[in-house]
Specification:
mainly alpha, about 120 residues
Length: about 120
């Protein structure tokens, strides 16, 4: 048993800074994206058309567009890494979040919903 313990590689986990963990009450692990290109940028020309104004960073249509770009990126990743179950879970979570946002947008502003779905090439339900 002692021989097994010495051959193990030590793993260090980074926790959130004390200032940010004070608000949650617990130290949280930080998730750092290995490839920053997986996160779409607000300055991307494909994303610009979904902004409602120059300072828009969080409207429903913009969030749906950003989630769609991330979903496309993860889907491409899963084509080559079929057994990456953590990414599969993350993809399912993003799909659920996008679904909730589209339901809200459809209820709140049907015209904006249809233009967003057409702009992204998604099915209008």
């Amino acid at each position: 048993m002692a021989a097994m313990m010495t051959s193990m590689v030590p793993v260090t986990l980074r926790t959130a800074t004390p200032a940010s963990s004070a608000s949650t009450g617990r130290g949280r692990l930080q998730v750092v994206a290995a490839n920053k290109m997986t996160r779409p940028s607000l300055s991307d020309p494909d994303i610009q058309q979904f902004k409602t104004g120059p300072n828009d960073t969080g409207s429903s249509s913009l969030q749906i567009a950003l989630l769609t770009k991330r979903i496309e990126s993860l889907t491409a990743h899963l084509m080559t890494n079929k057994k990456d179950y953590a990414t599969q879970r993350g993809l399912r979570m993003l799909l659920g979040q996008r679904s909730r946002l589209t339901k809200y947008l459809k209820k709140d502003d049907p015209a904006r919903y249809e233009s967003t779905m057409e702009g992204l090439g998604l099915k209008v339900k």
